[in-house]
Design a protein that fits this description.
alpha/beta, Rossmann fold, eight-stranded mixed beta sheet, 14 helices, 10% strand
């Protein structure tokens, strides 16, 4: 599918359907990056659906608690839980998974929403470029560590849990350069300080959203049709969001005018996340591995569908699993026991 700038403008101007509402009685919902923006607005909608547990996974204790308090004030939902996770720190992700393992509860919906945009190279304590780690390494790590809980939930309760990865229409504009593909490790090259020039970082968000779509498709391809789990990617559209607060220079000016003319209210964008997590109740299997926009399945980019794109996707999957196995051996168990 071609996604031109004109296509982008048309999609921004299209009328958005209302939010879908379902009964989440007894179910557990986790929203990552729930203290602000799309994550918080989606959490507000989930809170009105009577979930058994609603976990706000946030990086910062103070901002997270403020979100819990605001959620209660605006929705009346009184039992929201704040759990801390920092995707820029693999140890924090593992601690989150440890806590859930000890908690022993069910997990029906996981919305992997957190992401960052940075204008220049910054390394995490784990030695990776921050955008790449947060958006494309730690998010899969958290998902794979929680995957066994979701599958067990489906088996025990006869349900179909959902993993929703927040992607973007800009994945159509993401590219992986030929020299990167010729390197011994795609992900290591993409995360290296030598490769991350200002030009590369200016397009890094597009790339990370491309990798998000590839992750969803690669994971889904390895989930048996009999496994009670739906994984999908969703495009919320271009919305008012604090994610772009790290921009600088002319990027700030351009984004200001873009927001004034084209940005959707954050609540409108979050409806896509909610639909990906709860919509199409009669035929949820049709959402397996799909890319969702405007509360319907849309075609991914031509590159993702191309022979080169599919080959690259499989190669990146292999690299990703090896990287994450080294971070946490439980990834190996998930890959061996639950994936084909």
């Amino acid at each position: 599918m071609k996604f031109s700038y004109l296509s982008f403008i048309r999609s921004q101007c299209a009328e958005r359907p209302p939010v879908v509402k379902v009964d989440l009685t007894g179910q557990t919902v986790i929203v990552v990056g729930a203290n602000a923006g799309l994550g918080f607005e989606a959490t507000k909608h989930f809170a009105t659906m009577n979930p058994g547990r609603l976990i706000l996974a946030c990086r910062d204790q103070k901002r997270g608690q403020a979100a819990v308090d605001k959620l209660q004030a605006e929705t009346g939902y009184e039992t929201a839980e704040l759990w801390i996770v920092d995707l820029a720190d693999f140890t924090s992700v593992k601690r989150f998974a440890d806590k859930f393992e000890q908690d022993g509860g069910r997990l029906d919906i996981l919305v992997a929403n957190a992401a960052v945009i940075l204008p220049k190279y910054e390394a995490t304590k784990d030695g990776w470029e921050t955008c790449l780690q947060v958006n494309c390494l730690a998010m899969p790590l958290l998902s794979l560590l929680l995957l066994p809980h979701m599958v067990r939930t489906g088996e025990r309760y006869g349900t179909l849990p959902r993993l929703v990865v927040v992607a973007s229409g800009v994945h159509h504009w993401g590219t992986i350069e030929k020299p990167v593909l010729k390197s011994s490790s795609i992900l290591a090259t993409l995360g290296s300080v030598e490769y991350c020039t200002p030009k590369v970082m200016g397009e890094r968000y597009f790339l990370t959203k491309l990798l998000n779509v590839m992750f969803v498709r690669a994971l889904n391809a390895r989930i048996s049709a009999s496994t009670p789990l739906v994984v999908n990617a969703v495009d919320p559209g271009y919305c008012y969001s604090g994610i772009r607060k790290g921009l600088s220079g002319m990027q700030v000016v351009a984004d200001y005018f873009m927001e004034k003319t084209l940005a959707l209210p954050t609540e409108v964008g979050c409806r896509q996340l909610v639909w990906a997590a709860t919509g199409q109740q009669d035929t949820p299997d049709k959402l397996r591995g799909e890319y969702i926009s405007m509360q319907q399945v849309e075609e991914v980019s031509d590159y993702v569908l191309s022979a080169e794109g599919m080959k690259t996707q499989d190669r990146i999957w292999g690299e990703l699993i090896e990287i994450l196995k080294a971070v946490d051996p439980r990834v190996s168990s998930t890959a061996n026991d639950l994936l084909v």
